[in-house]
Design a protein that fits this description.
6 strands, 137 residues, 3 helices, 2 domains, 17% helix, single chain, alpha+beta
Length: 137
């Protein structure tokens, strides 16, 4: 952050030669307490506003999930006992799952990013899904 001490002084009602606000012409302190000077300048004033600017790039990925994929789960709650029978037998003919997370992988099958859906998407054999993932960096 670069602040003009004269502008700080005029905004706080203090002079630029005040013990809290150092003038531009004064050399820095030997202990380099510039962060303390900034804190005292802001603390002693009645109002302080600042702005921040940041450039953000976004990429969009569309994940198409056909009706015949991702209709089963490896979640242990789907199965019972050691023989791994389905808890709900209707899942044999009409499986239903909920998509909650999408992983983005590179060509080497390495996980690069994880996206969480705002609410679970109910998926069955008759439903296709198209999920739009925005990656900000």
């Amino acid at each position: 952050i670069v602040l003009n001490p004269n502008a700080l002084a005029s905004g706080t009602g203090l002079s630029a030669n005040n013990k809290y606000i150092e003038p531009l012409t004064k050399s820095t302190s030997t202990n380099n307490y510039e962060h303390r000077k900034l804190f005292n300048s802001i603390k002693s004033g009645s109002y302080f506003a600042s702005r921040r600017e940041e450039q953000k790039r976004s990429s969009f990925f569309f994940c198409n999930i056909p009706h015949y994929e991702f209709n089963h789960s490896q979640n242990p709650s789907f199965f019972s006992g050691d023989n791994a029978q389905l808890v709900n037998t209707s899942f044999i003919t009409e499986p239903k799952t909920y998509i909650t997370t999408v992983g983005l992988y590179n060509d080497n099958n390495e996980l690069l990013a994880v996206a969480k859906l705002s609410k679970p998407f109910k998926k069955d054999q008759n439903t296709e899904a198209l999920i739009k993932v925005r990656l900000d960096y």
